[in-house]
Design a protein that fits this description.
Blueprint (H helix, E strand, L loop, with lengths): L4 H9 L4 H11 L3 H7 L1 H6 L12 E4 L8 E5 L5 E5 L6 E4 L1 H15 L8
Antiparallel strand pairs: 1-4, 2-3
Helix pairs in contact: 2-3
């Protein structure tokens, strides 16, 4: 079982294409927010087993909801939509988990975006 943060990240990414993984690790070194984006598994691995947030109704969540997973895209009907753009971590889970991940992403990104308290 992986115990250090580096071991946990390597274990999770085992089997990934080495070239793509190299790009991912390089991007993750650029900022705390980039690291947060690239380590969704750590968020949920460290999620408390006992939390009032776990008692919420189960729904299909994005699983990796953060600021950069919103955007515009053109659908098959050729119309442009704005919404969630990344569902590779989607899972049936308490609806509060996506909210918690999104709020955390705002706090993590605040320094990089130069957002300060009034």
């Amino acid at each position: 079982m992986a115990t250090t943060l580096v071991e946990r990240i390597k274990h999770f990414n085992a089997g990934c294409d080495p070239n793509i993984l190299s790009l991912k690790y390089r991007a993750m070194r650029e900022s705390a927010f980039a690291f947060y984006r690239g380590t969704c598994h750590l968020f949920y691995e460290d999620w408390p087993l006992r939390s009032a947030l776990n008692d919420a109704p189960a729904v299909w969540i994005c699983g990796d909801l953060h600021l950069e997973n919103f955007g515009s895209y053109k659908a098959e009907n050729r119309l442009v939509y704005f919404g969630l753009t990344d569902f590779d971590e989607a899972v049936l889970a308490p609806c509060t988990w996506d909210v918690a991940r999104m709020v955390t992403s705002i706090f993590v990104a605040a320094q990089q975006l130069k957002i300060s308290q009034p």
